[in-house]
Every structure is written in structure tokens, then in C-alpha cells.
Amino acid sequence: MSHPHDQADQLFPRERAEIAPGAVHVPDWLAPELRRELLAACREWARPPAGLRTVRTPGGGQMTARQVCLGRHWYPYGYARTVVDGDGAPVKPFPELLGRLAREAVRAAYGAEAQPVAYGADAPPSAYDTAYDTAYDIALINFYDTEARMGMHRDSDERADAPVVSLSLGDSCLFRLGNTEHRGRPYTDVELRSGDLFVFGGPSRLAYHGVPKVYPGTGDPALAMGPGRLNITLRVSGLPD
Fold first, then answer.
1. Which of 88, 116, 197, 220 is deepest in the core (most CB within 10 A)?
2. Where are any strands of DSSP class E within 41-163?
3. pLDDT (tens digit, 0 to 9) for every residue of the chain, 241 residues total?
4. Would you kindly state where each structural domain of the chain is located, as residue ranges?
5. Are 117 and 164 in contact (CB under 8 A)?
6. How many DSSP H helices and E strands does the chain contain?
7. Backbone angles phi, psi at 7, to 5 degrees
8. What Pfam families does the record tag this protein with (predicted)?
9. How many CB atoms lie within 10 A of CB 104?
10. d(C-alpha 114, C-alpha 130), whole Å
11. What fold, for 8-235?
């Protein structure tokens, strides 16, 4: 099976696209220098204590993608200040670099004119900037080897409706954005490559989504990352300090 990367991509550059209301794909959003900086940071964040781990579900299964959390630790299905399903260490802090990227990502996806996506038509003009200047406080970083997958799920453990920001590094993947009612059709498949941004909020904030496939050997040569994909997911917890 051939991969979607081909010479046509050189002739017709990928463009920003709204995949569903509130769900926006911005190709090649991360500059190459920033990709390298994020990869180096992910390697540090993955070190113990509170490092990269295998996530196990209450039913005894386990996710094939491994994960490390910053700011708050996610476990099925809640948040904690320590790695309650791992080594018990305090979770690493949420860095300002990721907070800044989250704010810039939302603006890149929606533009300042798109306040109603997250706050409703009656939001005052200042609500957009004020909220996104302060709110993001969680990062879930998933590492997919070439065989890893992510089943259809919703990001529903937060107590805030701010958009989810997703950044991709390494191998490309097939990302599936579904509907808000169930895991089945209708859904839309999008190829996410190294450096791509995907934001989903507003009507798509609680849409089911997943990663059915990683494309081996499609990574970013400048990263020297090796096989696999990193996904940095940034969220607003809405939880009290």
C-alpha cells in the first residue's frame, strides 16, 4: 500500500481546513526548529520519575500508545497530582512553552474573530484573549510505535470546554474525527504529519476521535527521531488548584 506522501504534495501544498465545526487542521504549523526543541523536551519529560508509562484500563486492558503527563496526571478516568497508576511520583509541572503554544495554536486555528466557538455569541470582546492567556494547564504526551493505535474516545474528564490542541511529531498517522453521539459513523479521516496542528473545540469539543493507523517510515528526517509518532495534547482542566 502506498503512503499518501507523494510528488503531488510538492505541487499542491496542504492548506488549513475546517474538518467539522470547531475542528481545524493547520498543516506544517510547527517550524522545524520548534519541532526539534519539542522533541528534546519530550525526551526529558519521558524520563522517570513520573515518566513515560503504559496506561492500563480498569477492565484490565492497556493502551498501545505510551504516555507521560505534565501539569496533572491523567488516568482512566480522572486527574491527579501524582502518578497514581504508576510510580506515585508528583507529576512534572506544565511548562510555559506549552502554554504559549496552546494560546498561539487556538489563535492560528480560529482567529481572534472566532470567540463564539468557545464562549458563545454573547462573549465580550476580551474573553477570548483573557481565557487563552491563562487557562491551559495539562499536557498529555502519547508515544505511538509503528504498531500502536488509539481507539475512538472523547476527552471528557476536564471541567472546561476550551478547545483541545494537538501537535504531531515524527511519523504521520491517520486521525479519525467522529461525531459527539457514538463511536461509529459519520467520521472524517485526516492525515496528520510531523509539525501539524489540529484543534477541536466548540461543537466538536466532545467528538469521538482516535488514531487507527501510524504510517511507518514517514517521519521528519530533520528530527532524527527514529520510528514512531509523538502527539502532544494540550488541555484546560477547569479543576481547582
1. 197
2. 53-56, 62-70, 73-75, 78-80, 138-144, 150-153
3. 445 555 445 567 899 999 999 999 999 999 999 999 999 999 999 999 999 999 998 888 999 999 999 999 999 999 999 999 999 999 999 999 999 999 999 999 998 544 333 333 444 443 344 445 558 999 999 999 999 999 999 999 999 999 999 999 999 999 999 999 999 999 999 999 999 999 999 999 999 999 999 999 999 998 989 999 999 999 999 998 7
4. 8-235
5. no
6. 5, 14
7. -65, -25
8. 2OG-FeII_Oxy_2
9. 14
10. 14
11. Jelly Rolls (2.60.120)
- Please, are residues 215 and 172 in contact by the beta-carbon 8 Å criterion? yes
Reduce the secondary structure of 117-145 to three states and give it as a string. Answer: HHHCCCCCCCHHHHHHHHCCCEEEEEEEC
d(CA 20, CA 18): 6
- Enclosing H/E stretch for 192: strand 188-192
Nine cell digits for residue 207: 467528538
If we measure between CA atoms, which residue out of 239, 86, 203 comes closest to residue 69?
86
Query: Residues for the chain: how many in total?
Result: 241
Residue 153 to residue 214: CA distance in whole angstroms:
17
